[in-house]
Amino acid sequence: MMSKKEIKKNILSFLRKALLGLAVLCFVACSAYLIKYYVIEPYKNKSALETPSIDESDTQTTVMANKSKHILAKYKDLLEKNEDFIGILKIPLLDSDDMKVVQCDDNETYLTKNFNGEYSVYGTLFADYRNKIDNFDTNTIIYGHKMRDGQIFGHLNYYKDIENYKEYPTVKFNTIYEDGTWKIFAAFIANIYDSQDNGYTFPYLTVNFPTDAKFNEFIADVKSRSYYTNDSVDIKPGDKILTLSTCCYEFEDSRFVVMARRVRDGESENVDVSKAKINENQKFPQAWYDANGGENPFVNSKRFTLE
Fold first, then answer.
1. Angle 45-147-253 (CA atoms, 0-180°, nearest 5)?
2. Architecture of domain 57-292 in this structure
3. What is the 8-class DSSP label of residue 264?
4. What is the DSSP letter of 263?
5. In angstroms, rounded to a whole number, what is the distance separating the alpha carbons of residues 99 and 90?
6. Backbone angles phi, psi at 174, to 5 degrees
7. How far apart are CA 35 and CA 230, in angstroms?
8. Is the pLDDT of residue 20 over 70?
9. What's the confidence (pLDDT) of residue 34?
10. pLDDT for res 71
11. How far is Cα 111 from Cα 119, in angstroms, rounded to an integer?
12. CA 85 to CA 51: how far, in whole Å?
């Protein structure tokens, strides 16, 4: 029969071994988690993002049964791989690679689904389900995650810097129906809840506007929020706008937004960046002032509405 001392010793030995085993299990689990989300997921996403070389000068069209009009033949293979594919986004400031864009009947599916249809924390760039791609709305919206390794829209916030804008003032959004260049004219911070801005949310996700006057008001408000302005990129009723939206960390649940205007027929794709200037009186949501200190000078200013 064991003495109390021996029993106590055995119990302590068992506990030490149990704790050691638990520590090993925790280490293995944590290592597996880190490997999955910092090695496997990024690699898998890069593989899903890979786009075959496409000749932009190729303007041949073809017919697909489920599309409203002829598509560009160079995108047929990608469309056959994923019927939700709608085009290619090219942002030279972020990545030299083409980024595939999809669209389905909601704004949730591709938050956690890659182009190959697999689960992914990276998701896929996707257009707002309300947008018409075969005949652009006034404002076409593309969403993407801000990933810490820079993938997707991870570095979209580089457009806060006017020098980055001057070097890369255009993006390309080539749809399955037509290619197009877009001139950036604004980059700003937005809120998504009324509680973040004294009961108001700036409606930057508006797809179409009731009148030309309201569109002009909207553009003026966008410019007042932008880190910089450039008078050489004018915007008028009838123009098509591209909005790129991603999360940011200026305050909880904030958004970083870049807006661009489609190059008009017959217009040069070049941008006169010499006219770009920093906005010294930039407007932010109330939550930004709360997070960064200082009073909100726009707290009593007129708010843009669609009514």
1. 135
2. Beta Barrel (2.40)
3. P
4. P
5. 6
6. -100, 115
7. 44
8. no
9. 40
10. 92
11. 9
12. 12
Q: What is the pLDDT of residue 63?
A: 78
The three-state secondary structure class of 97 is coil
Q: How far apart are CA 258 and CA 132, in angstroms?
A: 20
Two structure tokens written together for 56: 């932009």
Name the residue type at position 281.
N
Residue-wise pLDDT tens digits, 138-170? 999 999 999 988 889 999 999 999 999 999 999
Dist CA 122 CA 273 (whole Å): 33
- Tell me which long-range contacts 65-69 makes (C-beta under 8 A, separation of at least 24): 67/134, 67/176, 68/134, 69/134, 69/177
**Token digits for 146?**
């801000």
Using one digit for the tens of pLDDT, what is the confidence trace for 62-93? Answer: 877 667 778 999 999 999 999 999 999 999 99
C-alpha angle 175-178-179 in degrees, rounded to nearest 5? 80
Cβ atoms 271, 261 nearer than 8 A: no
Domain boundaries, the chain: 1-49, 57-292
Asked if 101 and 174 touch (Cβ cutoff 8 Å), the reply is no
Residue 50 is predicted with a pLDDT of 61
Q: Is 136 helix (H, G, I), strand (E, B) or coil?
A: coil
Give me the pLDDT at residue 33, please.
Answer: 41
The pair phi, psi for residue 138, each rounded to 5°, is: -60, -40
- Over 60: is that where the pLDDT of 12 sits? yes
List, in order, residues 6 or more apart from 19 with CB less than 8 Å away.
none
pLDDT at 37 over 50: no
Phi, psi of 63 (to 5 degrees): -110, 135
Structure-block tokens of residue 13: 């030995």
